[in-house]
DNA sequence: CAGGAAATAATTTGATCATATTCTAGGCAA
DNA sequence: TTGCCTAGAATATGATCAAATTATTTCCTG
């Protein structure tokens, strides 16, 4: 006889009912996205089972997912590492984001409610505080989530997935660049974007985010593409 | 530093040395890509272990990869199915391909060698034969491989990955549409494209592939977005 | 007495782990 | 340098546990 067993009576731990492989995936994803893993660094299954205190099977599945998304790289012979971008890769990402991000911002501007705009504004304010505090990790996380929220508001899940996937690819490199430059020297165009969105000027919003993308990604290109010409 | 010997000299072993999860992944990928799995159909691990005569772990990993690529859909409660596209999804895919494919064709035109062009021409010829024969499966496979080869020639791996991923998303729906219309009624612009590529007219090649994309995808949109409004 | 809804049992399927096997890398000796 | 050998990591299997859907039963209502 099975008892009710409690739907959500998670007295044992603070974890929700998410399967382990999903939890591990998100943790590993954040590790990549916020640059806790350096470009080129090897990623081993057993290393992650220890670091994340997980079983082998969930870790394997999480790694496969990240490889499929381009966040990790399978090196032929059983080895997995964090991708090391070259100048051409970065140019491709810039090109794709220059098309995707403005398009998504345009749609988001047409669909965002006043509450949505307030939420974005609040996120941007918190982001500025992280910059002033010199909190690099906080900056990276909030900057990503700001753009991610924008993608969601566009109500175009496939295009949003594509844009999201690009962040996973340049996340590790972005961390390196920001670490060199310091957070103070990383301006953004979020204020222009929010002003245009409040005015419901979708074209202007697209233009603002396009500049934001170019400004941010060009720093990555120069810091990386210029310094590492060979290889 | 010496390289390890023995690149690919496995002439004796009939089977390649590919790991099982890689083999299963490719088989399952083809199943999705060429419409052997219908949109909306449930995909079970145990069903695939029987169908593909494989163990449970490789199948699980293959499914995770396909989910990450958007080829399969995770339905919250442990279930996995083949995505059922709606009109908005199809519009997104059309939009993305309208940008990606011309861009890749343009780059491919600038980089293709005469041998590459001969190869593409041969593929297109075989494709025409499949159409005449009424060989739907052969048509789907060759049509995909023609475009896939084009992506490779562009030498832009990230953009190519993105375009490739879109094929996985509309593959099952494409099969349904082609099954309804018959292969005879599926014209393409490959001849125009090849002519432009041979003339090294990159702009014209981009224009041709753009028309090819629109022509093909609009049939999917009309056949699906119009006919299946509810559900 | 019949029909249906809710609860419960049963079966199917997914998630996880422990373990055995296979492969790669690097050290060591000739 | 070359070849073998060992260590360690990745791959793959099967068993076990947990969850969800389906089927069944029961009880209430008309």
Automatic annotation (TrEMBL), chains A, B:
GO terms for molecular function: DNA binding; DNA-binding transcription factor activity. Residues 18-85 form the HTH gntR-type domain. This is GntR family transcriptional regulator. PROSITE patterns: HTH_GNTR (PS50949). Keywords: DNA-binding, Transcription, Transcription regulation. Coiled coil: none annotated. The keyword Transcription applies. It comes from Roseovarius gahaiensis. InterPro entries: GntR_C (IPR011711), TF_FadR/GntR_C (IPR008920), Tscrpt_reg_HTH_GntR (IPR000524), WH-like_DNA-bd_sf (IPR036388), WH_DNA-bd_sf (IPR036390). The keyword RNA-binding does not apply. It holds the Pfam family GntR. Transmembrane segments: none annotated.
């Amino acid at each position: 006889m099975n008892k009710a067993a409690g739907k959500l009576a998670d007295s044992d731990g603070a974890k929700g009912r998410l399967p382990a492989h999903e939890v591990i995936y998100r943790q590993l994803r954040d590790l990549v996205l916020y640059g806790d893993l350096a470009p080129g660094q090897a990623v081993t299954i057993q290393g992650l089972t220890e670091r994340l205190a997980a079983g082998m099977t969930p870790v394997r599945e999480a790694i496969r997912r990240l490889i499929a998304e381009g966040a990790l790289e399978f090196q032929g012979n059983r080895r997995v590492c964090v991708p090391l971008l070259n100048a051409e890769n970065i140019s491709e990402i810039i090109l794709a984001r220059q098309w995707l991000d403005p398009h998504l911002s345009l749609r988001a501007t047409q669909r965002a409610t006043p509450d949505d705009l307030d939420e974005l504004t609040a996120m941007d304010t918190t982001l500025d505080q992280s910059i002033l505090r010199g909190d690099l990790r906080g900056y990276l996380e909030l900057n990503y989530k700001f753009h991610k929220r924008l993608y969601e508001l566009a109500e175009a899940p496939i295009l949003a997935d594509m844009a999201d996937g690009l962040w996973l690819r340049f996340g590790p490199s972005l961390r390196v660049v920001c670490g060199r430059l310091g957070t103070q020297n990383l301006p953004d165009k979020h204020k222009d974007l929010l002003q245009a969105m409040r005015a419901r000027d979708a074209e202007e919003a697209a233009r603002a985010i396009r500049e934001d993308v170019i400004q941010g990604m060009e720093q990555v290109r120069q810091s990386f593409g210029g310094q590492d010409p060979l290889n």
